[in-house]
Design brief:
The structure is a single chain. The protein is α/β, with parallel strands linked by helices. The chain has two domains: about 40-230, 2-enoyl-CoA Hydratase, Chain A, domain 1 (Alpha-Beta Complex), CATH 3.90.226.10; about 235-285, Lyase 2-enoyl-coa Hydratase, Chain  A, domain 2 (Orthogonal Bundle), CATH 1.10.12.10. It has ten helices and 14 strands. A six-stranded mixed β-sheet has the order 5-6-7-9-11-14, with helices on both faces. Strands 1-2-3-4 form a four-stranded antiparallel β-sheet, with helices on one face. Strands 8-10-12-13 form a four-stranded mixed β-sheet. Strand 6 (about 50-55), helix 1 (about 65-80) and strand 7 (about 85-90) form a beta-alpha-beta unit. Helix 4 (about 175-185) crosses helix 5 (about 185-195). It is globular, with a radius of gyration of 20 Å. Bound molecules: acetoacetyl-coenzyme A.
Length: about 290
Amino acid sequence: MFASLVRPLSKGSQITKVLVTSNNVAKFSTSGVLRKDYHDILIESHGKVGLITLNRPKALNALSSHLFHEINSALEKYDEDPNISTIVITGNERAFAAGADIKEMVGKSFADVYKTAFLGHWGKINDIRKPVIAAVNGFALGGGCELAMSCDIIYAGEKAVFGQPEIKLGIIPGAGGTQRLVRAIGKSKAMEIVLSGRNFTAKEAEQWGLVSKVLPVDKVLDEAIKLGQEIASLSQPSIQAAKESINRAFELSLKEGCHFERKLFYSLFALKDKEEGIDAFVKKRDPKWTDE
Ligand code: CAA
């Protein structure tokens, strides 16, 4: 027996064929292209925005290997889907994600994690070309904070709690936490957070530059989707080039980064959308993007 899902949608939102079976196995088809059965995530499309909702509420969305494989699968499908331009990842009001699944680490030896490249598949999100926005409510701890930081933009609810508490488990962040946090908030604060394992608030995250906007809890997801739709309404090759160029800032010297940016800037002059955008400005009309 099927029941339809799930969360009240904001005006203008659409779910395309989302069904939940009695044993909570979801079958989805968005845009007629993405079609996959998932257990631990929910998939909805909102126009050109693909939404991934982490759905292990009893474990506070702890990021088990299975859950992360499903996130990767949905991200890859959305990245390939010509009807999707931006992606939003969210959780629920209690938890975005409370970290890697600690129970999965019980009894694992160095040889186990080293030989199997434990958490290696968490890096897939870095290969996604389309913009990914995190809509964070509740706990974003450990791997949850790292997942949010792997997204391109973070919107947070005013009660969201961030942190890298791994030190309290006798380990350290293992999915980019030390690297991304220091780049986002600077050395002293990153050291304080990682070495003490203390949590920090959404407001602090915004003041420190980790989060771009703090919103009322019930507005975070809608605003993230709205931002996704705004970005999706622009020329997609230039959006992807802008994302690629900003991300290069983390890898290159300033001189090399500016050089890379200039080459990409030149390459966009090959687009029909460049002619369209400039012509529309000059003629005081709205541009009609073709993504070519
Ligand atoms: N892994 C597995 N299960 C988790 C979990 C996690 N990271 N976080 C919470 N859970 C489970 C709890 O075990 C509990 O399950 P049971 O009901 O079966 O006991 C359920 O979720 C609810 O959690 P709590 O009862 O603990 O809820 P709470 O409100 O009292 O506390 C919390 C909430 C402060 C977030 C607490 O759950 C907590 O501290 N969680 C762990 C946070 C953490 O240490 N994260 C880092 C993980 S390591 C990591 O992420 C490594 C990396 O870099 C990738």
